[in-house]
Write a structure and sequence with these properties.
heterodimer; A: mainly beta; 10 strands; about 5% helix; B: 16-stranded mixed sheet; four-stranded antiparallel sheet
Amino acid sequence: MTITFYKTSDDPRKLNKAMQNIGANDAAVTATVNNTADTINLLSPDFIVASNNLYFTATHIFCADMGNRYYFISNIELLTGGKMSISCNIDVLKTYASNIINCSGVVLRTQQPRSKLMYDNKLPLISKMDVHSWLFPDTPFSAADGWNYLLTVVGSSSV
Amino acid sequence: MAEINTLVYGIKSSWIDTFEYNESIPAENRIKYANFGDNQTSIEKAYTANKLPLGTPWDKSLSYAALGDKMPLSNIQYWYGDKDSSNPLILSVLNQDERLITNYALGASGGFPAYEPDVQGTGNIVVEGEEVAAAKARYNRYTNGAEYSSSYTAWVNFSPFTQIPIKRCVLVPYVEAYRNDFSYGRQFELTDYLLNQKAEYNKITRIFVSICADDSTTYDPETGTGSPSRLFNASLCAGVVLDPLSYGNGFIQDGVELDDIFKPIIGNAVAGALYNKNLVTNWTTSTTWCVPIASGFDLDFTKIYALNQDGEITSNSRFYCAADELSTTQIRESVRKIVAGFGLFFADNLNDAQTKKLDDPAIMLGKLENGIGNGDYSSGIDNRNELQWTMQDAHDIDYDPSDPPIVLPPSVPTTFNAVNLADGGLKRYVLDDTAMQAFSDDLWNIIDTSDPDELIQNQTLTNFLTNNPLDAVVSVKRFALADMSQGSTTNIHLGKVVMSAAAKPFTSDSTILSCGSFDVPRFFNDFRDFLLQIIITLPFCGTLQLDPQAVVGKRIEIKYSIDYTTGTCTAWVLAPTSDNNSHVVIDSASGNCSVDIPLSGVQTATLTGQLYNANENLKSAKYNGIISGVNAAGSFVSSVKNNDFFGALNAAAGVVDNIHDISVLDWNVQHTEIPFKMIGASSGCNAMQLELTPRITIYSPVIDPSYNESSYLHSVGAAVCDATILSAYENTGYLEATNLELNFAATAAEKDMIRSLCAGGIYI
């Protein structure tokens, strides 16, 4: 069983991480797994390979024989006899990136909202309010003296 | 009668013929253009010759009559768009004209030759201190804050009419309408549109008038001999508003379409190739674009084609009036009223306008009241009864734009007004301080006799139905309003007495007055706009807290209805509905905007004025004294006869007492003060000391000062709720999603991991 080593600077939460080869001049680096005496866990495998310091630069392993899965390298342990034990955890986002992107679901938050009218309780609003004030453009009222006393009387028009 | 300003529009003998009239047509029977110099008629020349300087209101003397408050051009709305690249277009009404009268000029533009071919101006002119190319000057009418747009490059040739021989021209309306999906539009004569085209072209965008000028050498309107031949047709004759328009107000500078305001008589003002404005496209290119819309009668041009399911304005959107929601009669009558407002003869179709005699049933004539048109019209033989029939030219109409008639603002309908029904015998007067003092003084001079009989019979009961003139006073209130005058001064009628004090008659029971409108801003363009606390302070009525959902991003308006009898006022807050199709009351508060004035000052009253209450006592005493005296005297005689001395003494004392009582009361007549009545309560005037203009105060949420939107969005994202395929968000960055349907081959544990990760946030 052969594994291929990669490195990436992408956030572990990125769906389709950009993988780089770790060899000089972008050369692919592979290793033959030698786990004859041990079992291998599908989701958290430990791969025993011939020791190579180059592996310390890797962040990911791809294993075609284990269902074309990508794994995070979580630890590397040096063993006797010139071997290394490389502990891994499945990177489901990278492994199933092309499948996930075509799944349906409910998006609750996004970096590029088409509208920001949805109430967002994570926005850091502080316990303070700004105060703004404007007058309306017009008013019928006036305190000025003028013809504004209204006298109502009972009166006959036929005086 | 309007005298046309010859310094601006040229002297009458220099005015330019509009058509190639038959040589035998007298000069006074021809429609003529202004002459702005060098026999040029267009506004370009008016500007370059400095006859109508840019940035100043047009000379209004061209307005031979005015449009009333019901007419569309008196109520133009200015629609404003708020849009940027990431937000949907949001439309609101920026301003609305509410003129009681609107001055206007008719004229011709486009497709109709002036005397000299118009050419673009050359050289530069100075506009607001800035030198700009004259070719960019435009026939832009005055509006605050938006007099000139340097980005404007088109040229509009508008030539105003200075002479409109009323009986030698007939207007005809044209309807510009589109198919239901706005795929195609045309212009139709009104009759053709209603009979043949309405079903297919059911979205009306504008309505114009065309003017047909008579070149007949035989037709005599008076006798009806001969035949009219109004074949000359100045198509798309313009009705240009000459009064300041409200929609600049300092908000809009560039991008507005001022040039053709207002060539249509109703509808979307944006003209020429621009009438077919794609709202989204234009607001994308200019966020300050503004569309003037005029609606009126049954024609509402503020509907928007088309909105998506979220109520957002989509591309290919336009303003229109939905003809399919109106009956043929509604459209015909509305259009007729709108055309009638111009006070000229008109017909529903071109053939009638060109060939029918002026007293033919197919020819109508707009009625004018004091030179103001509000949509009433006559037709057929009745046209001969209108004043215009006696006139040679439209400018003979008794209307002077420099001294227009006083028009009262429309009041509430009085059909079911209880006050109006009850106060048939009431009279109201408006007084100022001086008149109030004169009235108060004169009150004490109403009673000018000390003779009790004369006083009671002829001066109190007869005049006032009671013994107290003050009973004829219902109320005196000082209103917190500016000048309430409605007419000239006249003597006050109190009861049946005509006082020497004078005041101005006041005929209204109630009124509705506007405080204008305010555009509630969107501070953030996100959900925080709906966390605003919006407080509105209403003079005399207190405060209201408005629901942000109802007002944010919208134009709210405050109107006061005022009851002049009680002084109570109710402030109404109005806001548009979500579809902008109607303006509804969203809240109200009531109070009192008057102060009762007690009629006091008794101590300074004249002596004769103090008589009348004591008079009644005196007269009563005289009557009772005579009766009881007679009785007492009879009793005295009877007692003597019966040797009843005690009885005789008592009876004699009764006669003496009666005489004494009358003397006392008579003294009282001279010395007792009238019990003066307090008219109304002495109400407080605290509210008058406060701010008298409505105020809106908005409390807006504050975000942490260290907040950085791009960082926040990258790390946390913004809230949405979008059930979709995740690929819709591909390459958008941070995303949280739940309820994923993972229909691909992976272990259950892996799928649980995927769901958990997506719920916690991933970068996609």
